[in-house]
Specification:
Two copies of one chain form a homodimer. In chain A, strands 1, 2, 3, 4, 5, 6 and 7 form a seven-stranded mixed β-sheet that branches. Chain A has helices spanning 7-23, 26-31, 51-61; strands spanning 33-40, 48-49, 65-76, 79-88, 94-104, 110-115, 122-124. The longest helix of chain A has 17 residues, at 7-23. Helices cover 27% and strands 42% of the residues of chain A. Chain A is globular, with a radius of gyration of 14 Å. In chain A, a hairpin with a 2-residue loop joins strand 3 (65-76) and strand 4 (79-88). Chain A is α+β, with helices and mostly antiparallel strands. The interface between A and B is medium-sized, with 25 and 25 residues.
Chain lengths: 125, 125
Amino acid sequence: VIGTPTAERIRSVFQRYVELVTAGDFEAVAALYAEHATVEDPIGTPIHRGRDAIRAFYEASAGSVSVELEGAVRVVGREAACAMVARPKNADGVRIETLDTMTFDDAGQITSMRAYWSPDTIHTE
Amino acid sequence: VIGTPTAERIRSVFQRYVELVTAGDFEAVAALYAEHATVEDPIGTPIHRGRDAIRAFYEASAGSVSVELEGAVRVVGREAACAMVARPKNADGVRIETLDTMTFDDAGQITSMRAYWSPDTIHTE
């Protein structure tokens, strides 16, 4: 399909996403998103709408956790999902098992993200 | 929240789901779904609406693959997601990396399922 971002491109965005969140580079994280993107993190909390709101969300949270992909990114067309593990930097041994679903536009920017984590998915190692 | 199925209940549905799909028990798979549930498997293909259409879908496909959960089920409220690996029984060494998102009703029945897999996520071991 003309304009659809490649699976390779989408996988690379997931990898950059976890690296930039871990580094606390909230400006670069926000730049992965399209102008009118939405973020629901975790699911059930108020949705952040637009890149400015998204930047503010990551400014408040990025850098506090080390995040890694768990297993392969599953890409289907303009959508993709991957399990992740997040470890708070200030809480030794705490492991948050999360999973993000994302949608993408023609340019390979994220148009929506939803994060599957809750008190139920937080464990102590 | 009153009526919300427990995380333990939702995790058990995921586990039963992969076991029943592997066994080819399409009637029991269909019974995991609510009467007016929807299935989009894989994402981008026509949506199966209602338990009868869902039963017909699994009748045509269940039993042809061995499916296992990969990693922990991530549960947040009435929603959950988990990576999975499916191996076609008639194709040695083929590994389909998939991932299902599901929503649930009060009774713990599945109200919607979407599957993240594509030619991009099929590999030969």
